[in-house]
Specification:
This protein is an alpha+beta fold and 291 residues long. It has seven helices and 19 strands. The chain has a five-stranded antiparallel β-sheet. A four-stranded mixed β-sheet has the order 1-2-5-3, with no helix packed on it. It binds uridine-diphosphate-2(N-acetylglucosaminyl) butyric acid.
Length: 291
């Protein structure tokens, strides 16, 4: 009924950038909007509550995996620029957008070159840097309500963005987003993008498996600075390590489990709370039941 693009007992480690975590009961690959609608229909019929994994960039799946159906929207990656607005499907990756903007000489989204993820994930997390975030550039999003199958357009004003968070009714699925960006100077855009990527390469472990920033930055400070100051840069647990390049990243050295990563996350939280009285809050989405 769900067809060949559904895999059962599918290891989610294969679908996340950190490459850890147990299996999902089922995982459906979504190639287009029709398929999304059909899969959601089946979910309604069987009362399944699907979980959208996005690109799996900012996600930590526990070793127990996920009991339910996971959707990957990687097929929703159409991208087009019309009348001052860039439209992109939820599955479009950061690298495709950066390339598109650089090729078409569009300015406004350069900052996003430094944030690994897909459009759907960017919106759900209000992804950003210190200077800019999605809330500054998104014009509207298109969501699908899994309960009715209805498609709704939500204008920026109707979205409550806060730091690394966007209030969407839990069940709504971001299918696409439109960004207000404008024509610019191709050389300048390419130069800015190149510089950002270079600086990311110098300050983040881009060649290693990670889930991006583990913690949100506490107000006025930086989680990376605090974890380093707590003496944890380079600390290991099993196959996981607090990055020696940026302490707000945990890297998988090859054979890490989710428990290894969680142990380091807890250690960082405890040490920073104990030494500096600051409670770090995870940015990474943690999926699955505790064993
Ligand atoms: N720092 C340290 N030690 C470290 C790491 C950082 O002292 O080990 C200091 C740096 O020297 C700097 C400050 O902490 O003064 C901030 O670090 P950085 O500029 O690297 O930025 P960040 O706040 O850690 C944010 C985003 C990143 C994004 C960069 C782009 C958050 C939580 N993270 O990182 O986003 O790539 O800015 O500049 O807002 C992500 O969200 O997954 C992500 C990668």
């Amino acid at each position: 009924m769900l067809g060949k693009q559904v895999a059962f007992d599918e290891p989610l480690a294969k679908h996340t950038s950190l490459r850890v975590g147990g299996p999902a009961d089922a995982l459906a690959r979504i190639d287009d909007r029709d398929r999304l609608e059909r899969v959601l229909e089946v979910c309604r019929e069987y009362q399944l509550d699907p979980l959208v994994l996005g690109g799996g960039f900012n996600t930590l799946v526990r070793d127990s995996g996920y009991r339910g159906l996971v959707l990957r929207l990687q097929g929703l990656r159409q991208i087009e620029y019309r009348d001052g607005v860039l439209h992109a499907g939820a599955g479009t990756s950061h690298s495709s957008i950066s390339r598109f903007c650089a090729d078409q000489a569009l300015t406004g989204l350069e900052f996003a070159a430094s944030i690994p993820g897909t459009v759907g994930g960017w919106i759900a997390m209000n992804a950003g840097t210190r200077e800019r975030e999605m809330a500054d550039v998104v014009a509207r999003i298109e969501v699908v309500d899994p309960e009715t199958g209805g498609v709704e357009v939500r204008e920026r004003e109707a979205l409550s963005f806060s730091y690394r968070r966007t209030e969407l009714p839990r069940s709504e699925i971001v299918a696409a987003a439109s960004f207000e960006i404008e024509p610019g100077d191709a050389e300048v855009i390419q130069q800015i993008t190149r510089e950002l990527l270079e600086s990311r390469r110098e300050t983040q472990p881009v060649d290693q498996r990670s889930c991006g920033s583990v913690f949100k930055n506490p107000s006025g400070d930086s989680s990376g600075r605090l974890i380093e100051a707590a003496g944890l840069k380079g600390a290991r647990h099993g196959g996981a390590q607090i990055s020696t390049i940026h302490a707000n990243f945990i890297v998988n050295r090859g054979d890490a489990t989710a428990s290894d990563v969680l142990a380091l996350l807890e250690r960082a939280r405890e040490e920073v709370a104990g030494q500096f009285g600051i409670e770090l809050e995870p940015e990474v989405c943690i999926i699955g039941e505790e064993a």
